[in-house]
Amino acid sequence: MKQFKNAPRADALSVSLSGLDAHLVRVEATITQPPAAFEITGLSEARQRETRVRMLAALQALNVDLHRYGASVRATPEEVARRGTFDVPVDLTILAALGQLSTASLKDTVVLGELAFGGAIRPVRGVLPGLRRPIAHGVTRAIVPKGNAREAASVPGIRVFVADQLVELVRYVREGVPLESAGEPPPFPIARRLLRACTAAGPRWGYYPSSRSGCCSSAFPSPERKNDVIIQAIDNASAEAIAKRIGRRLHEQKR
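User: That's the sequence. What structure does it adopt?
Assistant: Structure tokens below.
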């Protein structure tokens, strides 16, 4: 795909997860010379196809027909980007490369979210661990799906805003229309009890959220990371159940 000389380009930051390890990913879009084609590199083939379909449909909902243009999108570093979903930053960088907005206002900001065909921003998994790592790289703000607001509000040291529709985010970047804050962190009385239980149990017991339900359900032998993962026990009922389970096992060990 041949690029224009001095081809318009734009970039934005996002996050990819490998287990509970978060990695900062840069998404860059470049407008290329017709004939029109849309190319994504850095993602697995399946994610490329899914991302292409969703983001083209979301752009059409904004009356942007990318079929008239050529565009190249790259997510780096590729070895970690392959696991991520970057629909929202992809659409924002393409709109910026087309000259319809500027991503300068997204400096030191990570953008998360998956798009529906009509432009709705769907929740994604792993927001809490995903936001903890970028803080160490100087990231000060995050924009996440509204459905992830409660989880994202739990992360200290970063300002979190939420959006429910791509058009809201476009208005924020283009016109400065304020986004809704993620709100106050939820209370974690049961999660703290669970953390104390795991600490008392010693290095053999630690838990992380289930990929399906979002609650704690599986064990891993890494005591140095308990503080990072147990705080994700946002579902108090699930945390309560696991705290009781750990208590029973401790009791059995003492017998």
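The mean pLDDT is 76.
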